[in-house]
Design goal:
mainly alpha; single chain; elongated
Length: about 110
């Protein structure tokens, strides 16, 4: 499997944050870039360089968010498909924490 071509300024990013940096770490570095840009004391070339760094950070953040969204979708579809055959129409899915709550709820109504 080949690696995708690097985007501009990914080399800089590897020097600042490790390749396995988490989303929160990337956002912290991005905030630093934004602060430097907002100060307004950079030359045009420096500002462009910071902007490129910011774009590289946003891309990495978006990649991590995409991966997280995909994982949540996979987990969610696994829940609905694994319990779907056990339910009749209109029945709610089993709780993520087991069906103890459902049993207690049913017991309350059995006493009446």
């Amino acid at each position: 499997m080949s690696t995708p071509p690097q985007r501009p300024n990914d080399e800089w990013l590897a020097d600042v944050v490790p390749p396995d940096a988490g989303y929160e770490d990337l956002v912290a570095v991005l905030n630093e870039v934004v602060e430097r840009l907002e100060r307004g004391d950079l030359s045009l070339d420096q500002a462009l360089q910071e902007y490129e760094r910011g774009v590289a950070l946003v891309r990495r953040c978006n990649d991590l968010l995409d991966q997280a969204e995909l994982r949540v979708s996979e987990l969610s579809s696994g829940l609905s498909s694994s319990h779907g055959a056990d339910r009749g129409p209109g029945e709610r899915p089993l709780s993520l924490f087991g069906d103890d709550y459902e049993d207690e709820f049913d017991d309350e109504f059995d006493d009446e």
